[in-house]
Amino acid sequence: MAESESGQDKTEDPTDKRKTDSRKKGEVARSKELNTVGVTLAGAGALLMFGGHLAETLMALMRMNFSLTREVIVDERSMGAFLLASGKMAIWAVQPVLILLFVVAFVAPIALSGFLFSGSLLQPKFSRMNPLAGIKRMFSMNALTELLKALAKFFVILIVALVVLSSDREALMSIANEPLEQAIIHAVQVVGWSTLWMAAGLLLIAAADVPLQLYQTHQKMKMTKQEVKDEYKDSEGKPEVKQRIRQLQREASQRRMMAAVPDADVIITNPTHYAVALQYDPEKGGVAPLLLAKGADFIALKMREIGVEHKVQILESPALARAIYYSTELEQEIPAGLYLAVAQVLAYVFQIRQYRAGKGKPPEPLKKDLPIPDDLRRDE
């Protein structure tokens, strides 16, 4: 198994990012055997489909160029005309074959890994000019694999050729006794079928080479555990950076929360460990008070200082403060189980405001035992 420069085994499957980066570099699975089989089969099929037309055009060219009149022979200008006409006939005859071969030669390479154009493959690599690296490649496992494939192709083609030629021996011998036109067409057919059978034999090589190339490409892209961790850090962010971002987000959230404290109707405290700031505005359509801010210890102390500075009513109710702190998120309404307790607090606050404005009597002290459900109660 391949090892990285750090000595760690590449035991991890490649990530999506690794696959994308390898593809950008042109490092994808390619099978030369698949390309060879595709082009050879296309050529054999083209001979069988268009071989008759190709043979007839060839015979027409021979008649036109081998049966010249004396006037044409002595006319220098006729040479160019005959050359142009012969060229047009030849191109027209081989055009279907060339088009088919071009299409297959374009499709076969992309059939395995799709279309890919990578500029990095066009860049010169001076490492390839290193003789030691060249010798290393000559005696590598990849070179041995290519040698075995070449020997396998040789023996497969040899065996198929011997079988095909032995089976077509009588047909080949009969060509010598056939008229010229019929012999040419017959020869094209024999060559086409022979090529088709030899290409079919190469399918065995391609069938073994395609999974081999996929496996080798996968092995080259495999990663060590450290590479996976480093990639995750690069893509998701280093832990210390993410921690710093979360800290800045918390600080920004705390600043927004502290800025909302002056808008509160009441701050309920523990009295020192917890503090929650509530606002009730029935004109906004809310059915319950909103939690504008909450905090513990230092944040709770800061909330009380801001409340004193902006003359927000501060009340001590340890059980209610803890219940709201643990059950309600910022800018959310308090749970239904705390409606009655908070309603008593807000009623007391509004009575204090009326009294201070000279519009009522002094309110009775707030009850210490407010109605708090057991499922919302939190002990110290």
Explain how this protein is built.
The protein is mainly α. 64% of the residues lie in helices and 6% in strands. The protein has 13 helices and 4 strands. The protein has a 4-stranded mixed β-sheet, with helices on both faces. Helix 2 packs antiparallel against helix 4 (77-113), helix 6 (141-167) crosses helix 7 (169-175) and helix 6 runs antiparallel to helix 8. The longest helix is centred in the middle third of the chain and has 42 residues, at 180-221. It is rod-shaped. The chain starts with 15 loop residues before the first helix and ends in a 24-residue tail after the last helix. Mean pLDDT is 78; it is low at 1-7.
End-to-end distance: 59 Å
Structural class: mainly alpha
Largest sheet: 4 strands, mixed
Q: Per DSSP, what share of the residues sits in E-state strands of 2 or more residues?
A: 5-15%
Summarize the structure.
The protein is mainly alpha-helical and 380 residues long.
Q: What's the structural blueprint in terms of helices and strands?
A:
Layout lengths: L15 H9 L7 H35 L3 H5 L2 H37 L17 H8 L2 H27 L1 H7 L4 H42 L3 H12 L2 H22 L5 E4 L4 E6 L10 E7 L1 H12 L3 E4 L1 H10 L11 H18 L24
Parallel strand pairs: 1-4
Antiparallel strand pairs: 1-2, 2-3
Helix pairs in contact: 2-4, 2-8, 6-7, 6-8
Key attributes of the depicted protein:
mainly alpha, four-stranded mixed beta sheet, rod-shaped, 380 residues, cell membrane
